C-alpha cells in the first residue's frame, strides 16, 4: 500500500460529503433533535488559529451527537455588519459590502477546507436585507411594547470611532474595539429597556448553573449587580425654589449606619449638583466639573486616587437625627448609579473615609465590630457587629438594624426599602453606516413614527462609499438626502428618517433563532421550527462574550417569550468557553510578532493533524500553546491509524465475537471510555485513548492474532468512528478502505458489549450432575442470574443435556454452576 497522503485524502472527500448531505439534519421527526452552535464569525479576514480552536471543539460535539443517532442542527452564518468593514471601505474608497462579502467568500472556503460539519444550506448574513428586515421588525416589536425608547443623556463616546458605546462596550474606561479612552457626551439616543428584565436575568441563571461556566455566571451576576437597601430622603436646606428646602433621595445598602452619616455627597456631573449649589459656590463647581469630564468611571472609582470634591454651600438634614450634614459634590459618586447622591458614613465606608480625611470631615463609628477605630487607622470597619451611638438602634446586630432602620424611615415617610441594579439600559443606536437602519421616521407633526411593517426593510443606500462614510460625529446616513427625506407614514407630510444604525449586538441577539427557518420570508423565525430545535443544546464561544452577547441574547429571548414569539426563556442550555491559542505562552499578536498563520499550518501538516492537535493539546476550555504542541506528532499518529485500515484483511461484516478477546476488550473499553469522556467534555483524553487503542491493534496485527482476525476489523472500525469526530478526512478514508460505501459521519457509534468491559474475568466451571462439562470466561462480579443464563445458553451444555429435564441449577457465582438434570 502507498503511504498516508493527507493532500490526496483532503481532495477525495468533500464532494462526497456534499452529495450525501451528511451535515444537514433529517428534520423528519424520526430522531431526537440536538442543536449545536458556534458563535458565528465576524468576516474580518481569513480564518485564524482562534477560529480553528473554537470550531474544532464545537465540531467534536456535533459529530459525536450525529454518531449517537441524534438529528443534529449545526448551522453557520456571518455576523457581517460592523465597523471594520466600514473602516476598510473608507480606506479603499469602496462600499462596506464589497469588503465584507469578499471576506466571507475567503473564510467560507477555509471553513469548508477545515471540514466543519456545518449545514451550509442554512447560511445567513446579518447584513443581508432579508435578515436585517427582521432585525428592524424585532426593533419595532420592542418599540411597540415600550422596550425601545429614546432619551437624552450623557453617553459613552469613542472619539476615535466617533460613535457612542454601550456600557458593556467600555472596558476599563476604554473603547472595547480600539482601546481609545472613552469620554462622555450628551446625546439623544435609542435604548432597549433591559433593566426591566434585571430580576429575571438573575433568577433564570439558576437553570444554567452547572451547564454554563461558573465564571460567566459570576460575571453576569456582577454586571447586573443587584443591591438590596433603602431610599432615604434628606431635605437640603434652602436649595429649593424661593429658598425652600429641597428633598434629595439617596440609595444606601446600609440604612443601619444612618447615625454615622457625617456629610452628604452628590455626583459632581449630575444635574442635581448644579441645581442645589449655593450661588457663591457655583463657579467653583463649574470649574470642578470641567476637571471631572475628562475622567472615566473606572478612574473616578479607583481607590488609590486622591479624593477630590467641592463644598456646595448647603446642608442636608438627616431624617433620623435631624443633624445637619455639609453637602459636597465629588467625582467618586457616579451620576448614573442609584440616585446620584449618597449619605457618607466614613467610619464604615472606605471611599467616604478617604474623602473625610482629605477634607477634614468628622468620622463617627456606629457599629462596634471589634476592629480598631477607623478615625485613627484610616481603615473603615466593614465587618459584622453591634450598633452603638445610634439611639434606638443601639445593641442591635447589623442585619436587624438594617431592618429596623428601614421600618423607621418607612413609618416616618422619609424612606422605603429599595432594590437597586448596576445594570443600565442598553444603548443601541450608533452613528455609523454599516448596520441595520433604525426603522423610525421623525415627523414634525406626528413625532416618532414606526416604519410600517410592509415597508421593511429600510434598506441602506448603496451609493455611499469611501470618504462619505468617514466618521463625522453624526451618522453618515444623514448626508444621504434622498434617503433621509421621506413622507411621514402617518400623515404623509415631509419627515426625516432616523439616521442611526443599530449596534451589531442587536443582530447577534436573535440569529440563533433564524437558523431554525433561515429562508422564511414571512417571519423572523417560525414558531414551529423554533419549538423543534431550540433552545440551543450546546453553545460554543469565547469568554469575551460573557456579558455582551450572552446577556443581550438572554434578554432578547425573554422579551420574545413575553411577546409570544418563542416558548422558552433561555436561549442556550449549555455553554462551552474554549481556550485561546497562544504562542510561547502569550496571545498571538502583530506587535509581539508571534502570530501563527493557520493556512500555513494546514498546508504543512494537513487539516486533520491541526484539528487533532487543537483537541489533543488540552481540555477544551484551557488555552493551547502552539509552541508546546506537535502537529507533526499528530500527523504521525493519523498515519499510523490510517495504516491499520490498509492492513485489515477480513471482510466487512465478519463476526467479531469469534475474534481475539484481548483486542475486542481493548476496543470496547476504548469506545466506552470515549463516550463517557465526550459526555464530560474531556475531548483531549478521548484522543489519548484512541492512541492507546491504535497501539494495541498495531501489535495484534504485527505479532498477535494478525490482520485477518475479525476483532481487528472491529477495533479499526471503532478507531475510524471515534477519529471521525476530530480527523474527518482520515476517518472517512479509513472507512472506505474498510469496504464501507456510506459516510463515516453517519456510521453510528459502535455498540459496546458490557461483558467486554470487565477486566477481571474468572473461569466458571459448568457441571452436569457434578461432572465438569464446560468452562466459561465470565466477569468476576457476574450476578447469579447472569451466570445461570450463560451456562444454560452454552452450546456444549445444551448438546450434553439433550432433552433431559432440568430439575435444579445450583449457582455459586462466579466460579461454579451445577446442573441437576
Ligand atoms: C451609606 C453607606 C454606609 C454605604 C456604609 C455603604 C457602606 P452597591 O453595593 O454597589 O450597591 N453609593 C450609592 N450610590 C452611589 C453612587 N451613585 N456612586 C457611588 N457610590 C454610591 O453600593 C451601594 C453603596 O454605595 C451605598 O450604600 C452608597 O454608600 C454607595 F457603611 O450608603 B452606602
Ligand atoms: Zn406625520
TrEMBL record:
Keywords: Aminoacyl-tRNA synthetase, ATP-binding, Cytoplasm, Ligase, Nucleotide-binding, Protein biosynthesis. InterPro entries: aa-tRNA-synth_I_CS, aa-tRNA-synth_Ia, Leu-tRNA-ligase, Leu_tRNA-synth_edit, M/V/L/I-tRNA-synth_anticd-bd, Methionyl/Leucyl_tRNA_Synth, Rossmann-like_a/b/a_fold, tRNAsynth_Ia_anticodon-bd. Residues 221-406 form the Leucyl-tRNA synthetase editing domain. It is found in: Cytoplasm. ATP binds at residue 590. GO terms for biological process: leucyl-tRNA aminoacylation. This is Leucine--tRNA ligase. The lineage of its organism: Bacteria, Bacillati, Actinomycetota, Actinomycetes, Micrococcales.
Amino acid at each position: 500500500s502507498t503511504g498516508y497522503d493527507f493532500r490526496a485524502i483532503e481532495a477525495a472527500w468533500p464532494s462526497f460529503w456534499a452529495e450525501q448531505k451528511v451535515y444537514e439534519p433529517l428534520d423528519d421527526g424520526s430522531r431526537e433533535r440536538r442543536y449545536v452552535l458556534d458563535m458565528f464569525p465576524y468576516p474580518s479576514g481569513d480564518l485564524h488559529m482562534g477560529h480553528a480552536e473554537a470550531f474544532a471543539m464545537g465540531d467534536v460535539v456535533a459529530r459525536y451527537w450525529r454518531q449517537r443517532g441524534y438529528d443534529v442542527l449545526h448551522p453557520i452564518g456571518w455576523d457581517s455588519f460592523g465597523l471594520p468593514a466600514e473602516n476598510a471601505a473608507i480606506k479603499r474608497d469602496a462600499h462596506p459590502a464589497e469588503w465584507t462579502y469578499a471576506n466571507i467568500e475567503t473564510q467560507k472556503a477555509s471553513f469548508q477546507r477545515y471540514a466543519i460539519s456545518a449545514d451550509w444550506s442554512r447560511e445567513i448574513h446579518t447584513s443581508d436585507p432579508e435578515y436585517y428586515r427582521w432585525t428592524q421588525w424585532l426593533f419595532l416589536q420592542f418599540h411597540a411594547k415600550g422596550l425601545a425608547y429614546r432619551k437624552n443623556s450623557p453617553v459613552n463616546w469613542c472619539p476615535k470611532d466617533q460613535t457612542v458605546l454601550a456600557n458593556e462596550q467600555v472596558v476599563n474606561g476604554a473603547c472595547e474595539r480600539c482601546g481609545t479612552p472613552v469620554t462622555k457626551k450628551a446625546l439623544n439616543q435609542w435604548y432597549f429597556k433591559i433593566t426591566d428584565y434585571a430580576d429575571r436575568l438573575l433568577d433564570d441563571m439558576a437553570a444554567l448553573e452547572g451547564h454554563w461556566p461558573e465564571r460567566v455566571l459570576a460575571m453576569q451576576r456582577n454586571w447586573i449587580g443587584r443591591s438590596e437597601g433603602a431610599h432615604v430622603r434628606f431635605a437640603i436646606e434652602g436649595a429649593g425654589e424661593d429658598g425652600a428646602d429641597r428633598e434629595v433621595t439617596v440609595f444606601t445598602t446600609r440604612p443601619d449606619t444612618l447615625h454615622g452619616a457625617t456629610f452628604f455627597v452628590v455626583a459632581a456631573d449630575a444635574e442635581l449638583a448644579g441645581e442645589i449649589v449655593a450661588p457663591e459656590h457655583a463657579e467653583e463647581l463649574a470649574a470642578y466639573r470641567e476637571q471631572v469630564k475628562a475622567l472615566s468611571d473606572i478612574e473616578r472609582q479607583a481607590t488609590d486616587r486622591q479624593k477630590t470634591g467641592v463644598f456646595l454651600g448647603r446642608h442636608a438634614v438627616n431624617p433620623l437625627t435631624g443633624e445637619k450634614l455639609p453637602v459636597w459634590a465629588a467625582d467618586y459618586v457616579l451620576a448614573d448609579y442609584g440616585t446620584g447622591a449618597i449619605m457618607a458614613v466614613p467610619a464604615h465606608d472606605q471611599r467616604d473615609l478617604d474623602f473625610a480625611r482629605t477634607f477634614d470631615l468628622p468620622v463617627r463609628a456606629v457599629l462596634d465590630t471589634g476592629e480598631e477605630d477607623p478615625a485613627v487607622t484610616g481603615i473603615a470597619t466593614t465587618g459584622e457587629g453591634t450598633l452603638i451611638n445610634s439611639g434606638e438602634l443601639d445593641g442591635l446586630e447589623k442585619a436587624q438594624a438594617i431592618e429596623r432602620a428601614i421600618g423607621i424611615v418607612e413609618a416616618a415617610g422619609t424612606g422605603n426599602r429599595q432594590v437597586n441594579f448596576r445594570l443600565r439600559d442598553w444603548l443601541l443606536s450608533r452613528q455609523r453606516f454599516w448596520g441595520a437602519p433604525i426603522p423610525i421616521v421623525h415627523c414634525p407633526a406626528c413625532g416618532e413614527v414606526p416604519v410600517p411593517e410592509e415597508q421593511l426593510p429600510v434598506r441602506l443606500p448603496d451609493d455611499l462609499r469611501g470618504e462619505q462614510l468617514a466618521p463625522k460625529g453624526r451618522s453618515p446616513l444623514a448626508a444621504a438626502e434622498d434617503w433621509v427625506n421621506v413622507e411621514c407614514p402617518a400623515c404623509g407630510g415631509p419627515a426625516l428618517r432616523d439616521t442611526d444604525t443599530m449596534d451589531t449586538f442587536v443582530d447577534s441577539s436573535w440569529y440563533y433563532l433564524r437558523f431554525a427557518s433561515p429562508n422564511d420570508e414571512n417571519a423572523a423565525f417560525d414558531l414551529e421550527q423554533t419549538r423543534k430545535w431550540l433552545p440551543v443544546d450546546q453553545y460554543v464561544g469565547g469568554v469575551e462574550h460573557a456579558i455582551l452577547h450572552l446577556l443581550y441574547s438572554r434578554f432578547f429571548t425573554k422579551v420574545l417569550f413575553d411577546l409570544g414569539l418563542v416558548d422558552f426563556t433561555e436561549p442556550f442550555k449549555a455553554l462551552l468557553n474554549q481556550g485561546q491559542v497562544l504562542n510561547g505562552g502569550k496571545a498571538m499578536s502583530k506587535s509581539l510578532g508571534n502570530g501563527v498563520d493557520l493556512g500555513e499550518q494546514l498546508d504543512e501538516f494537513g487539516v486533520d493533524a491541526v484539528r487533532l492537535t487543537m483537541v489533543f493539546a488540552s481540555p477544551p476550555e484551557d488555552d493551547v500553546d502552539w509552541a508546546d504542541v506537535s502537529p507533526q506528532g499528530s500527523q504521525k499518529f493519523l498515519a499510523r491509524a490510517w495504516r491499520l485500515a490498509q492492513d485489515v484483511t477480513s471482510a466487512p461484516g465478519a463476526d467479531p465475537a469469534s475474534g481475539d478477546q484481548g483486542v475486542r476488550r481493548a476496543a470496547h473499553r476504548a469506545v466506552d471510555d470515549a463516550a463517557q469522556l465526550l459526555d464530560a467534555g474531556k475531548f483531549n483524553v478521548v484522543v489519548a485513548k484512541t492512541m492507546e487503542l491504535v497501539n494495541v491493534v498495531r501489535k495484534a496485527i504485527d505479532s498477535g492474532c494478525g490482520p485477518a482476525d475479525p476483532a481487528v476489523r472491529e477495533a479499526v472500525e471503532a478507531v475510524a468512528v471515534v477519529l471521525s469526530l476530530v480527523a474527518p478526512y482520515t476517518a472517512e478514508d479509513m472507512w472506505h478502505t474498510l469496504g464501507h460505501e456510506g459516510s463515516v459521519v453517519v456510521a453510528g457509534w459502535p455498540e459496546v458489549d458490557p461483558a467486554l468491559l470487565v477486566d477481571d474475568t474468572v473461569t466458571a466451571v459448568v457441571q452436569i450432575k457434578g461432572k465438569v462439562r464446560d468452562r466459561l470466561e465470565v466477569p468476576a462480579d457476574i450476578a447469579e442470574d447472569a451466570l445461570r443464563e450463560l451456562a444454560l445458553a452454552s452450546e456444549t451444555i445444551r448438546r450434553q443435556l439433550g432433552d433431559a429435564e432440568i430439575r435444579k441449577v445450583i449457582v455459586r457465582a462466579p466460579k461454579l454452576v451445577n446442573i441437576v438434570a
